[in-house]
Amino acid sequence: MIYLIGGAPRAGKSILAQCVAARLKTGWISTDPLLELLRVGNVAGVKTEWNAEPTAIAATAEWFFPYLERFIWGVSSLSEGYVIEGVDFLPAQVAQLAAQFQVRSVFLGCSQMTLERFEQFPGCSPGYAHLPDEFKRQIVHDVPRWSMFIQQEARRFGYPYVDMGHNFSSRLSEAVAILIAALSEQ
């Protein structure tokens, strides 16, 4: 089973991935390093700029899909389970993957974000600490809009969506339960 955790930046995807991977005793990866490898390899079309417009988010997900699909094929042939999280796929791509692989998915968002919250919420991505203040403000502005788009797409394709904006630990438990429930259904 491949467990896919998608959603908006700074919503808690990495923390959820770590929790689920620990419970399942399996590996996990963020799509961030996969994209960085494509950047280093100068692959044409790789995302290089921040753009939170729904059309840009969807275009990146479509562009990234063949690489994600190939990665999942490789992981599936080596492991019984794996957790993958990132902003670079949407419910549409999960639906395509579900036709080929056993997948479970949840999408996370954050409908409310402030600069103070950005600095600490949820707080496990050290790369964000060194961003220029102007870029941090842009992310704070864009996360709720990005989250709304993810929520609409999750609803459209029938995948669970959890808003991490309030009571993070309770919402994290909810998201873990959604993915772990897959074990009892097998």
Characterise this structure.
- The protein has 186 residues and is of the alpha/beta class.
- It has one domain (9-185): 3-Layer(aba) Sandwich (Rossmann fold), CATH 3.40.50.300.
- Helix content is 56%, strand content 13%.
- It contains seven helices and five strands.
- The chain has helices spanning 13-24, 31-40, 54-78, 91-98, 115-120, 133-157, 168-185; strands at residues 2-7, 27-30, 82-86, 103-109, 161-163.
- The protein has a five-stranded parallel β-sheet, sandwiched between helices.
- The mean pLDDT is 88.
Strand content: 5-15%
Q: What shape does the CA trace take?
A: globular
Spell the H/E element sequence.
EHEHHEHEHHEH
Helix tally? 7
Taking all Cα atoms into account, the compactness measure Rg is 16 Å
> Architecture, according to CATH?
3-Layer(aba) Sandwich
Number of strands: 5
What is the assigned CATH homologous superfamily? P-loop containing nucleotide triphosphate hydrolases
Mean pLDDT: 88
Tell me the name of the CATH class.
Alpha Beta
What secondary-structure arrangement, pairings included, does this model have?
Layout: E1 2-7, H1 13-24, E2 27-30, H2 31-40, H3 54-78, E3 82-86, H4 91-98, E4 103-109, H5 115-120, H6 133-157, E5 161-163, H7 168-185
Parallel strand pairs: 1-3, 1-4, 2-3, 4-5
Helix pairs in contact: 1-7
